[in-house]
């Protein structure tokens, strides 16, 4: 049996993908904290935890190449380096157990964002249900992974006398299905709210794209499921593990990157000096004779008229809620809160309204 190894493929992928995730997270924090000056919120902490878990998962994957013989054919290892076969079993158990937690955390981060910007009770209930399913599923999968064999050592050494194990092959394949289902729900959840906004079609399309970005992990989840479905993880385990581990790293990593991409609008605007992408910030134009109203915080519009910060009418038609720079999708709050008006001090202008979008 040849000593040829394809472990380098996993090493190259990790060497490219890990820095990509670090850059994605760094840009997220730069966009939110440095550009917007936004407060540190719960999903920021989840993104940071997700990155740490992803680095740990990548480290285990690389370790499996050096110490577990991943990349070599199993037959070669059994003949020449049998101790690595046992070590590979330990790495496999660690990878599977860590994966179930790592893939859950960035999805919870996206749900935390949804919870913050979608105040409608019906949406909040769905968010809590999804979060419960994700957390409960992760706990159940971790417990099942660790208790899959009796005695425990049989998890990484199934040749032990009297060892009894569940069908691990089926377990690894079908645990991806709940991920796919929850991804589809998370993809669909914000869309009705976005398309019910009192705003232009262009803005609705931009918002739709923003939330679709957060579901890129769905594609990775489907591809991982297909790879595990058509590949037997145990026939030539150490050789086939290269592709399987790559997808095991890619799926949660893409979830993490997606959670970061959703927050890049302020950074894009700073770089391009354009509001064309995700331009939720606009202005209410009023005639020059009305500019004595308020504190004079208005600015020049494109037509030369003075302008006030954009305020979005809620569904009830009663009252406006001012958009802020801190939350690019704040407009969604007022269109998804069941029509409850928000009380604000000062004079509300309800006439001679025209949307304009700053491109400076």
Automatic annotation (TrEMBL):
It is found in: Membrane. The keyword Transmembrane applies. It is a multi-pass membrane protein. Residues 351-360 have a biased composition (Polar residues). The keyword tRNA-binding does not apply. It comes from the Eukaryota. InterPro entries: Rhodopsin_dom_fungi (IPR049326), SAT4-like (IPR052337). Residues 291-360 are annotated as: Disordered. Keywords: Membrane, Transmembrane, Transmembrane helix. Its main location: membrane. Residues 27-270 form the Rhodopsin domain. Signal peptide: none annotated. The chain crosses the membrane at residues 12-30, 42-66, 91-114, 126-148, 171-193, 205-225, 245-264. GO terms for cellular component: membrane. Belongs to the SAT4 family. PANTHER family: INTEGRAL MEMBRANE PROTEIN-RELATED (PTHR33048:SF47), PTH11-LIKE INTEGRAL MEMBRANE PROTEIN (AFU_ORTHOLOGUE AFUA_5G11245) (PTHR33048). This is Rhodopsin domain-containing protein. It comes from Pleomassaria siparia CBS 279.74.
């Amino acid at each position: 049996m040849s000593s040829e190894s394809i472990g380098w493929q996993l090493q190259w992928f990790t060497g490219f993908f890990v820095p990509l995730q670090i850059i994605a997270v760094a840009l997220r924090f730069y966009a939110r904290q440095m550009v917007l000056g936004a407060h540190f919120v719960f999903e920021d902490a989840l993104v940071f935890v997700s990155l740490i878990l992803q680095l740990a998962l990548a480290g285990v994957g690389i370790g499996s190449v050096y110490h577990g013989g991943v990349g070599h054919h199993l037959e070669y290892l059994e003949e020449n380096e049998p101790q690595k076969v046992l070590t590979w079993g330990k790495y496999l158990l660690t990878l599977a157990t860590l994966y179930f937690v790592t893939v859950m955390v960035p999805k919870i981060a996206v749900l935390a964002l949804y919870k913050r910007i979608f105040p409608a009770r019906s949406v909040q209930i769905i968010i809590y249900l999804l979060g419960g399913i994700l957390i409960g599923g992760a706990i159940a999968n971790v417990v099942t992974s660790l208790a899959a064999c009796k005695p425990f050592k049989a998890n990484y050494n199934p040749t032990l006398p009297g060892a009894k194990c569940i069908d691990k092959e089926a377990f690894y394949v079908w645990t991806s299905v709940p991920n796919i289902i929850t991804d589809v729900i998370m993809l669909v959840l914000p869309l009705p709210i976005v398309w019910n906004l009192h705003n232009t079609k262009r803005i609705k399309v931009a918002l739709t794209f923003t939330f679709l970005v957060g579901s890129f992990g769905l594609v990775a989840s489907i591809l991982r499921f297909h790879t595990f479905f058509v590949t037997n993880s145990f026939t030539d385990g150490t050789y086939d593990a290269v592709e399987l581990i790559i997808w095991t790293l890619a799926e949660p990593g893409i979830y993490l990157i997606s959670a970061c991409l959703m927050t890049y609008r302020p950074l894009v605007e700073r770089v391009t000096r354009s509001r064309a992408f995700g331009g939720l910030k606009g202005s209410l134009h009023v005639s020059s004779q009305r500019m004595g109203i308020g504190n004079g915080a208005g600015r020049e519009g494109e037509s030369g008229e003075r302008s006030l910060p954009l305020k979005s009418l809620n569904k009830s038609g009663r009252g406006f809620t001012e958009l802020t720079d801190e939350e690019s999708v704040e407009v969604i709050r007022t269109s998804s809160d069941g029509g409850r008006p928000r009380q604000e001090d000062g004079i509300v202008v309800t006439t001679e309204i025209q949307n304009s979008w700053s491109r400076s």
